[in-house]
Amino acid sequence: MSSVAFETQRAALADVVAIPVTPFAEDGSVAQDTHRTLLRRLLDGGITTLTPNGNTGEFYALTPEERRLVTELTIDEAGERAVVLVGVGHDIPTAVASARHARELGAHMVMVHQPVHPYVSQAGWVDYHRAIAAAVPELGVVPYIRNAQLTGARLAELADACPNVIGVKYAVPDAARFAAFARDAGLERFVWVAGLAEPYAPSYFSAGATGFTSGLVNVAPAVSLNMIEALRSGDYPAAMKVWEQIRRFEELRAANGSADNVTVVKEALASLGLCRREVRPPSKPLPESERAEVAAIAAGWSI
């Protein structure tokens, strides 16, 4: 497939890349109707890129059957309204099966989660992503990079072998490292997505990113869209006004090694009556003493 055919996918990455939550029912199963309602709320709010099975969707806490279900619900609900980037990962055969399932359903891209293996070599990182990308040459492939040791040259090597590797979700919390990595890999060659969401978006955009991921978008799509509009127009003071607006919410999510990253988002949604607050281990619901602050922030955004 020519690079021209990936233009739609590239454009979708240069945007707010929403990572929807996976709401659970009282019995602990995926709450399918609630999930559809939350997806529609994102779509109606102007979001046009969705990542089912991302970390905010509790990817690593879902069963294989649940991951397939979440993919199916998202693609069905999105229809022609959004580009869908399906999260895949785990061992290579599992990731390939997930990517092929996404392709069969009409997904446009897959995001390959960072390998969770404790021993990752740089050459092995290339081999892992190459095996997945080669299995679905028609799909755009977006590696999710959280490994500060990985060099830009390795990403270029991967894309030389697999031209469908078109974008990168870069989530190393170091703007200078990101700037160097992107230039070593090829700044124009890939779409650079700030993988640490709104708090890092202004600094990463200044270094070449054109999209950012968001979990906050589940709660307040307009806030995330305000930030990307400011960044696209190069209005950093306006972007930083949004940054100040979301700062406390994101600090709560990032505290204690991001222990409550998903928890805070679901708590905000619960405070708005949109879904249950339950998360799965190793996450844990917020203690009652901390719920009021999250509710106050969410209420302020929905005015």
TrEMBL record:
Gene3D superfamilies, alphabetized: Aldolase class I
A Pfam cross-reference name: DHDPS
Q: Which CDD domains does the protein's record reference?
A: DHDPS-like
Q: What InterPro entries has UniProt attached to this entry? A: Aldolase_TIM, DapA-like
- Asked if the keyword Lyase belongs to this entry, the reply reads yes
GO MF term list: 4-hydroxy-tetrahydrodipicolinate synthase activity
- Does the record bear Ligase in its keywords? no
Where's the active site on this chain? Answer: Y144 (proton donor/acceptor), K169 (schiff-base intermediate with substrate)
Identify the residues that bind pyruvate: T56
* Alphabetical keyword list: Lyase
The entry's family comment says: Belongs to the DapA family.
Report the protein name in the record.
Dihydrodipicolinate synthase
